[in-house]
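Researcher: Please predict.
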Amino acid sequence: MTKNNLYRMAMLPVLIFLFNSCLGLSLDIQMNRNGSGRVTMEYRISNLLNSIGALDGNESSAVIPVSRDDWERSIENIPGVKLVSFSKRVNALDNTVNAVFDYPDPQSLALLLDSTGKSVSISQTGQSGVLNMILYDEPSSNYDENLLALMRSFFNEYNITINFSAQTNSTLTVTNGKGNAGNIPSFVTAAQSGRRVSLSVGTIDLLEIPDGLGVKIVW
């Protein structure tokens, strides 16, 4: 397997609608009664992935917003969405980016999370609504077991976490990659308490779920 293939395989679509090569992501969505709200994203980009891409001349192949200017360009066509704050930390292992956005309505939130409309859908009636989000929809059989084992040895500490809170009680249902309810793998953690629900899964664990993974949140 060439370094180019390894780099592209490492950029598995963990959250297709956000970043196709970050390995750790914390996504916190706050929903107000009128459908407006705030999104906080914190994501970690492994320096190892960047190095592999640079060595093979593919440093530009990953579409990841890594600067304030990147995010300003990304949201300029989404009506009403504002970048409230941006920060970046760099250490020997990875780059950690924190970006906070305000959005005016569910439609703008959906575009912020997924400009293609393929992985995220949101509907709201009055103060109630439904958020459907597909986190991963590739069958695990598509990926070489040796590569997954190698990735686990390097990236086992990276996680995907989603938190959602509204002004009314919320529920969360874990689905497969087609949005249908199914069995929850033991390594997927889902919790709900009143207005707040959450889901967490290891990034590499996510890649090994046979039928993909999604989430349906109702408030």
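Model: Residues 3-218 form a domain with the Immunoglobulin-like fold (CATH 2.60.40).
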